[in-house]
Amino acid sequence: MIRYYPEKIIILDDARVRDSIITKNILSAVEGRNISVSYFCEEKIAAMIQDAKKLENSYGEGKKTLLITANRGEFLKKCPGTNDYICCDYYIIDFAQNCPMECTYCILQAYLNNPFMVVYANIEDLFAELNSRLFADPHKKYRIGTGEFTDSLALEHLSEYSKILMDYFSDKPQFIIEFKSKTDYVKTFTNRSGARRNVIISYSMNAANVNRFEELKTATIEERLIAAAECVKAGYKITLHFDPIIDYDDFETEMALTVELIFKYLKPRDILYISLGAFRFIPALAEIIALRFPKSRIIYNEFIKGYDKKSRYFRFKREKLFASVIDSIKKYDTASEIEIYFCMESPEMWNALLKKAPRSDEELGGTLYDKCRNCFKAI
Amino acid sequence: MLEDIQYQYLSIPLSGLNQADEDNRISIPADYAQLEKSISETGLISPLIVCASGAGYKVICGFKRLDILKKIKPGAPVKCLVTDPLPPADQLALNIAENISSRELNPVEAANAIAKLSAFYGRGEIIEKFLPAMNIQKSEYAYNKYISLASLGRRAKEFTASGRIPLAAAFQIVKFSCSEQEMFLNVIEACRMGANLIVETAQLVFETSMQYGVCAGEILTRAGCESIISNADLTPNQKTEEIRRALHSLKRPMYESAMARFRELAAEFDSRKISLNPFAYFEKDEISVKFNITSIKDLETKIAALERLKESRLAAEFLKNNGGHGDGARKEGKAGR
Ligand code: SF4
What we know:
The structure holds two protein chains of two kinds. Chain A is α/β, with parallel strands linked by helices. Chain A is 40% helix and 20% strand. Chain A has a single domain, classed as Alpha-Beta Horseshoe (pyruvate-formate lyase- activating enzyme), CATH 3.80.30. Chain A contains 16 helices and 18 strands. Chain B is α+β, with helices and mostly antiparallel strands. Chain B has a four-stranded mixed sheet. A two-stranded antiparallel sheet of chain B has the order 5-6. In chain B, β2 (48-53) and β3 (56-61) form a beta hairpin. In chain B, α1 packs across α2, α7 (154-161) crosses α9 (178-191) and α10 (195-212) runs parallel beside α13 (236-251). The longest helix of chain B has 18 residues, at 195-212. The A-B interface holds A 55-57, 84, 247-249, 251, 291, 297, 300-302, 304, 306-307, 314-317, 319-320, 346, 348 and B 139-141, 207-208, 210-211, 213, 251-255, 282-285, 326, 329-330, 332-335, 337.
């Protein structure tokens, strides 16, 4: 896949950002390329963001600019759930926002109010916050990801953020850290001796045709799996996320192709868990998809309003889609080595297709955490 | 510059005007009853603007007036303001400026104007300079929307220009082919739909066609629109209802069939005693039962109704641990893929 390079870089003129290792990494990675670099104060950057927002294709155009700035809010966030669906009690480090890839269904299109690619370089603030918050509850089973407001590895060739985070967590094995990606970037994991015991590399999976037509500028499923296999070779464990599962043409065949490919490159014991989540969206996202990707048909289907106010497939359609993916996986994972769970599903769905529904988000989070820890201990 | 143009007043016979040359036309030929009445009563007050072109004159402004004069005064000379030859871009800009100085362009005229301007000006210049002058929001989004309208079929343009279909519906049906637009217009005419319903129906047809990956005409056919609108026994309201029901069944087959089954089974209960609502069932193993109690006797009636519910076919089909859940909905499968 083609790696992202911005057309211009804007840097917040603040010592925490200017002198940060992140900024230095990015500037040295783009050296020799024809990329303009400018330093601006906060007010000027705010004005530039406002101007960029006025562009018709602001979301697409804005990505050409990489903004290196400081995160003034919290870095560590809890993945938001709702009472009526079971969530996996996941935490996120908000280290960057926006993504150079173009998935038609990407929620960031409706969520972000800054069209630039953003990296938060005030890494000392991040570490200070992690130090003060992560240890507050010694019993808390933290699984922490970075791929919520961006792709974990999309800018890794520039910033090496994940590498720095891995170093930070290397002497804190009680925290599980997960890098979730649709890229095939592996250098961070393969270029070092010995895998980190608390690090999981995670790849998004989808039906082969969804990957071709709806996940633009991403690595192909096969490229991701080749990357995953390299990580396994380097000693890492993999997790896979089928999310969003989309009711698409020839769903069962195309999904079976992907599952077949997974087990061509990975063995069940290489995979800690697989999550399944069906396509869901807010009305604002539907409008954006219709406008930016008029050929995409993903928003035209039979949907109901879920308890989280998002449109989602009718319950029995979801059940059918999930059942098909689970059946495909089970054909290869005959000894049930892989933990399968749902992302934001009702207890009814769990009871119909998986084992008994977890009683709480913490219970599910705990199961996944224990699975990781036991596996790491066994290595 | 348009303000520097010099005009000369002339009366020109109709035959002297290049009537076939409609390069500058932004209006659509239609029924201009009011303007026609005014011209026949008081004559032409605002002269046409033309410029010398070959052996005759090319019309810059006044195509509607010309249409009317051809019809009601074919032998009479036409009052014209003649300019020196102008570059085509200036002719068009002059026509637009003359029109918007006296009235608001209808959406089709605005669309035609933008489409024609795009032959001479870049999109950025049109957005910056012309859209605000036409009272259209200065954005690429609006530019794209309006330029798409220029490809509406003739009848759809007439409906849009005259306001018989709202702009939001025009933006939807422009995605249909011309013959599908005709079918759609026949439906809304036969049903005498109001503005909101027209927009909702256009959207429903478009979304359903995308859902099934077929054209809009196919959806109108599958919904049986042709036979519904030609059914003389139905009132326009009944036709509307039938068409909406048919379109919704196509759009939400699982929901509609589960609802139909639920209604059928719920009809076995007296809704004055307990009211049953399946909504929760569409996401959970739950239905909602509501009732008020006015007396002890009333409470006994409600308890009896609940007892009947427990043994009912509705409970057997829609509640878990009592014959499975939701077989009616579950069996229905996928929507057209
Ligand atoms: S890779 Fe993830 S973050 Fe990037 S566009 Fe796709 S869905 Fe959005």
